[in-house]
Design a protein that fits this description.
Shape: rod-shaped
Oligomer: single chain
Distance between the termini: 159 Å
Helix content: over 70%
Radius of gyration: 50 Å
Structural class: mainly alpha
Length: 137
């Protein structure tokens, strides 16, 4: 394999430009394509592959951490919502109790007013029944 063939092969790998430029410089500076050059390129590509594997592992760990964080945030939102719903229910019950108490007070006041009005009215005079004297002509 000649230098141009090796460069063409590396070009097809679609490497990052910085890595591709490094390898092309290495090829250009080499007197010929021999086993030592090929081994050096293979070692560099292996190191780059290891780097990508480790980067992928780190990204996967980071993604898992983000998922855990998102889950925690969702749980916090659910807990907050549950607390808010509980507070609303407590306030609703307080409001219902207050309304019930006010209704009882109004009913009691109305009954007292009715009794006062009844006490202020003069007692009604019983009407005497018409006499029915049978002895009268």
């Amino acid at each position: 394999m000649n230098k141009d063939g090796l460069k063409g092969y590396l070009e097809n790998l679609r490497l990052e430009n910085s890595l591709k430029n490094l390898l092309f410089d290495l090829i250009d500076k080499a007197p010929e394509v021999d086993q030592a050059l090929l081994n050096s390129i293979a070692d560099i590509l292996d190191l780059q592959a290891d780097f990508y594997d480790q980067s992928a592992d780190l990204l996967e760990e980071e993604a898992q951490e983000y998922e855990a964080l998102a889950e925690e945030l969702n749980t916090l939102d659910e807990e907050e919502n549950a607390e808010r719903v509980q507070a609303l229910l407590e306030h609703q019950q307080t409001l219902l109790n207050d309304i019930s108490q006010k209704m009882s007070e109004i009913k009691t006041r109305h009954e007292i007013d009715s009794l006062k009005q009844g006490a202020n009215q003069p007692p009604s005079q019983p009407t005497a029944p018409a006499s029915t004297d049978l002895n009268r002509p």
